[in-house]
Amino acid sequence: MSLYDHDGYNIVMxxxxxxxxxxxxxxxxxxxxxxxxxxxxxxxFFQDAAATYGRVVRINFGSxxxxxxxxxxxxxxxxxxxxxxxxxxxxxxxxxxxxxRGLATNExxxxxxxxxxxxxxxxxxxxxxxxxxxxxxxxxxGEQWRAKVKAGEPVNMQTEMMRLTLRxxxxxxxxxxxxGEEDRLGQAWTVVLQEFNRRSWSLVQIPDSWPTPANRRFxxxxxxxxxxxxxxxxxxxxxxxxxxxxxxLLLHAQDAETGHKMSDQQLRDEIMTLFLxxxxxxxxxxxxxxxxxxxHPDTLTQLQAELQQVLQGRLPTVTDLPHLPYTRAVxxxxxxxxxxxxxxxxxxxxxxxxxxxxxxxxxxxxxxPYLMHRHPTYWPSPEQFQPExxxxxxxxxxxxxxxxxxxxxxxxxxxxxxxxxxxxxxxATLAPQVHPTLLTDQPIQPEAGVTLRPRRGVGMRLGE
Length: 464
Fold this sequence. Notes:
The chain is an alpha+beta fold. The protein folds into two domains: 1-63, no CATH class; 64-461, CATH 1.10.630.10. It has 17 helices and twelve strands. The protein has helices at residues 35-40, 42-53, 72-81, 93-99, 108-118, 124-128, 131-151, 157-174, 182-200, 213-237, 246-252, 264-295, 297-311, 325-337, 369-373, 392-395, 416-430; strands at residues 56-60, 65-69, 86-88, 155-156, 344-348, 352-354, 357-359, 364-367, 437-438, 446-448, 452-454, 459-461. A five-stranded mixed sheet has the order 1-2-8-5-3. A three-stranded antiparallel sheet has the order 4-12-9. It has a two-stranded antiparallel sheet with strand order 6-7. β10 (446-448) and β11 form a beta hairpin. α7 (131-151) packs parallel to α17, α9 packs across α10 and α12 (264-295) packs across α17. The longest helix has 32 residues, at 264-295. It starts with 34 loop residues before the first helix and ends with a strand.
């Protein structure tokens, strides 16, 4: 049984034929390599591959190879020490189609310039101003939940969190400029996300130009989002008054050295990137947190006790967060077990060597927060939910290449502080009034697409 096996499932992986130029790895099929095995259960496939073959594993895709790394030193080398030699790599064209050249996909000097331009908008003091609309929207959802509790209605927590974070990302990005358009934009973004995830692991990529029903739905949805975003940018450029939202901050962002500001295309790409990061990933992080709390009522009780002691029944504010260490620990432990971005891709510009093995320019590198966060070498009882791991004393001891839910190095997610603030405020607003129980005893399975989401949602009753 694999070191990572947690439910009796194990992929049988005979080793690849000995090759002096590649690390060991699972044997694949002619032409396709390991794609059929990986496609069916990617998380388990990667876990078993790492446990079976070690810290550097060859993942054979037939015409291309990837190095799967679970060595913190090798991860640091790729993400930090020699990061200039590694570009972001994606084999899914839809990623660039949706996100353009936002920070998540941009490269080189263009990325550096854009990062420098955007950094002030995500300073802690700037994002602290966004705390009040977060708690206001979360409190409104709490009122709806109270009615559902009285009626005995169950909820799909993933759906609830998706709706909440959609409202929030629209409000934080555009303020009041999209009032009345939330449902229409939400439906369009849902279509884009569904296609985003569907294509991410599809073995057969249907050409985007083919007029299939799925392609037509996707193009209509993306066109609506693009037109709306460009209209909002154009309208906002013609106004002199300031707005307390991210679009305003991005519009006025200016490079201190060059005086450069973002073009409409750059703004569009960053807004779409923030849509993904602020909606899909935050909703998934919260969904997994509620799932874990429903399984661990003692943890929920301890969380509620801290919230009652500090807040005394009022809504939380950003200034309360430093006084809620257990709330932060619950979020950190949830992100350990279920990091929204579970796999990082890189590809070298120039040949390199990792773990003593030569890496060619047509090879890729896979780094998985999911694998590292559950690695038994670094985490005792890695499959167990234990927020105590992230007490203020212990949290400082973890290497940033063993625990990195937002990435590491220069490409660390620029919105990590905003995401953590939003997740903690929502949890602190809603947790005091619910006692969630799952509708089924069956474990909720993670679905590894572009992000890590609960397969078929998280059905639960909220209790009283």
